C-alpha cells in the first residue's frame, strides 16, 4: 500500500513540476519578463523598449523579441512607410501572463520588504 501512495505522490509532484518547468523554459532569462512588462503598457518600437529596459543590449533585445514572437507572446508589425516602421505588441496570448506577472510583482515587493527588515527564514 505504501508503494501506491508514494507513486501517487511522485505523480502529483511531477504534475506540478512539469507545467511550471514548461513556463520557466519560455520565460527564462534576465530579459523576457522586462520586455513583456514594457509591452503591457502598449505598442512599442525597438528603440523605445531599449530605453525603458536598463542595461539590455540591442542584440539581446532583438534575440529575446524573436524568441517571444516564436512562442506567440509578441507580435511584430512592419508598416510600409518611409522609413519602415516596426512596432512590437503583446498578443492576446501574451496578455494571458498578466496575472502571473502581477503575482510575481506582489511577491517581489513582499520579499524586498522582508530583506530590508532583516527577516530570515522561519
UniProtKB/TrEMBL annotation:
Swiss-Prot/TrEMBL keywords: DNA-binding, Transcription, Transcription regulation
Annotated SUPFAM superfamilies: Winged helix' DNA-binding domain
Molecular function GO labels: DNA binding
Domain HTH hxlR-type: residue ranges: 18-116
Protein's UniProt name: Transcriptional regulator
InterPro entries: HTH_HxlR, WH-like_DNA-bd_sf, WH_DNA-bd_sf
Pfam families: HxlR
Annotated organism of origin: Flavobacterium cerinum
Amino acid at each position: 500500500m505504501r508503494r501506491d501512495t508514494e507513486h501517487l505522490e511522485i505523480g502529483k509532484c511531477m504534475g506540478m513540476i512539469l507545467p511550471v518547468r514548461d513556463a520557466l523554459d519560455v520565460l527564462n532569462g534576465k530579459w523576457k519578463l522586462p520586455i513583456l512588462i514594457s509591452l503591457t503598457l502598449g505598442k512599442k518600437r525597438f528603440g523605445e523598449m531599449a530605453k525603458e529596459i536598463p542595461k539590455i543590449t540591442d542584440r539581446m533585445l532583438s534575440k529575446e523579441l524573436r524568441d517571444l514572437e516564436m512562442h506567440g507572446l509578441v507580435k511584430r508589425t512592419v508598416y510600409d512607410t518611409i522609413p519602415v516602421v516596426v512596432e512590437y505588441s503583446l498578443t492576446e496570448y501574451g496578455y494571458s501572463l498578466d496575472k502571473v506577472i502581477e503575482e510575481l510583482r506582489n511577491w517581489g515587493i513582499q520579499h524586498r520588504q522582508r530583506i530590508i527588515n532583516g527577516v530570515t527564514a522561519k
